[in-house]
Each structure stands twice: as structure tokens, then as C-alpha cells.
Amino acid sequence: MPISSDSLAVYDIKSADLPLVAFQLKSADLQAVGQALQAQLAESPGFFDQDPVLIDLDTLADDAGAIDFPILIGLLRQHGLQPLAIKTSQPGWLQAARAAGLVQADDARIRRQALGASASAAVPAAAPPSPPAPVAPSGPVEAMVLDKPLRSGQQIYAKGRDLIVLSMVNPGAEVIADGHIHIYAPLRGKAIAGARGFSGARIFAQSMDPELISIAGVYRTSENPLPADVRGRAAHVSLQSGAQGDKLLIVPLET
Fold it and tell me: Domain 144-252 class?
């Protein structure tokens, strides 16, 4: 039966790009996964806002056993994630995932793994869950500007943009941004830039003396003191990749 011109006028079909968060599962013990998610997200309530998710099983051992995908999907939804697709080379897992309503996405490219993407890893409580980043928006996004000091226990998250802080970040306070963080005051608390995997993010502070700094999941705590030439001074932090892996580079700003 030929398609009428009237039917063609009521819709279009075009290609589209959807930014996904990759959830890299490393344990088939879903009870442990749920406990780890709850503990980590308690540090950053509301971090996920119904973000679409690709469940990546390439980091899970082949002999991990069966996975109850309906339970896993429900667990992720409970924490603000919306599972849509599966990435795996194991036919049994793929069949079970499809039966649970997930689509196959073996050609998906997973960006840098970020801190907290592994629910089975032993991660310091201060470090937020930070899955790889969605695709950046096509146009400029206005930075979030904070002009009041942050007290202990307060947390600010600039989702999908940079964060500019004009007052002190006190010990026990936390600033998070998907982009860069600029602090035109002392940094005494925690600063997490590139929270969703943007490895090009940087942290700038007028006085660098943090409890924790992190970029794209690579972090450093005050248990590893900063060098004397940057501690308490104007400095910036970037992520450097090399033969030994990723590390944070902290250098003074020229005055």
C-alpha cells in the first residue's frame, strides 16, 4: 500500500545523539551494589536527575554468574538513573538484558572511568560518584556564581556548567561542577571539577589548602599534603595523563 503525502506530513524521522551516563558494573552482587550506591550518593543527594544510563558489563568478570536485570534496573531508577541500553559481549547477559527491556549498544564508546562508577570498589566517602560525562551542550552555558561563604556541611553543585565562587569554601563544605571551578577566595573544603568525566576541567583557587580536590574522578585528599610552593597560595589543578596513569598536577599561579 503506498504511503500517502498526508501521513508523511505528521512526523519526521531523523538521527539524534543522546548523552548517556555509563554505569560500569564490577560485581553481580546487587545487594552490595545497592549499598555502595546508597552510601556514595548520601554525600551528593540529587546528583542524578533521571539521567539516561548505559549499563556496561565489559568490566565484569565473565564468570560472575547470572544478573537479575529487573532488580538492577529498579535499583538504578531508585537512585535517579534511567537505564536504557546494555553493552556486553556475553550472549547470556545480552539475552537477559533484552528481556528486561534494554537495547543493545555494543558500539557505544565509554569515556574515562570516573570515581564512584565502580560500586564494588572501596572509595573514600568524600569522593562523589562521577560517571563519565554526557556530550557537552552545543551552545554556551552560563556559569553558576556563588557570592556567599560555604559553611561546613553545605554543598553546591553546578550541573552541566562551570562554578565561580567569590567567598571562602570552609572545611567540611563541598563545591562540585561538571565544568571548571574558580574560587576567588581560600579553598579549605572539597572541590570536585569535571564531576561527570570532563577530563579537561580545572580547579583554580586564590588560596589552595583543600580537604579534597578531584577532576574527572581522579582525586587527592589532605592526607597527602600539598607541596609547600602551592599550599595556601594561588594555584590551579589540572589532570595529566602519562605512562603511569592519570594524576593531578597542582601548580602555582603566576602573580
Answer: mainly beta
Query: What is the distance between the alpha carbons of residues 115 and 137, in angstroms, rounded to a whole number?
Result: 23
Grid cell, residue 85, equals 541500553
Separation of CA 183 from chain center: 21
The tens digit of pLDDT for each residue in 195-218 reads 888 889 999 999 999 999 999 888
| Gap between the Cα atoms of 180 and 142, Å rounded | 12
Q: Residue ranges of the domains in the chain? A: 21-104, 144-252
> What is the distance between the alpha carbons of residues 110 and 98, in angstroms, rounded to a whole number?
20
* The C-alpha cell that represents 136 in the structure block: 557537552
Query: What is the pLDDT of the chain when averaged over all its residues?
Result: 81
215 and 248 in contact (C-beta within 8 Å)? yes
176: which 3 cell numbers? Answer: 562540585
pLDDT for 32-57, tens place per residue? Answer: 888 888 877 766 666 677 788 889 99
Rounded to whole angstroms, the Cα distance separating 174 from 191 reads: 6
Q: Which residue has the cell 537505564?
A: 83
CATH no. of 21-104: 3.30.70.260
Percent of the chain having pLDDT more than 70?
A: 80
Q: What is the C-alpha separation between 147 and 163, in angstroms, rounded? A: 11
pTM: 0.54
Could you tell me the three cell numbers for 196?
Answer: 561527570
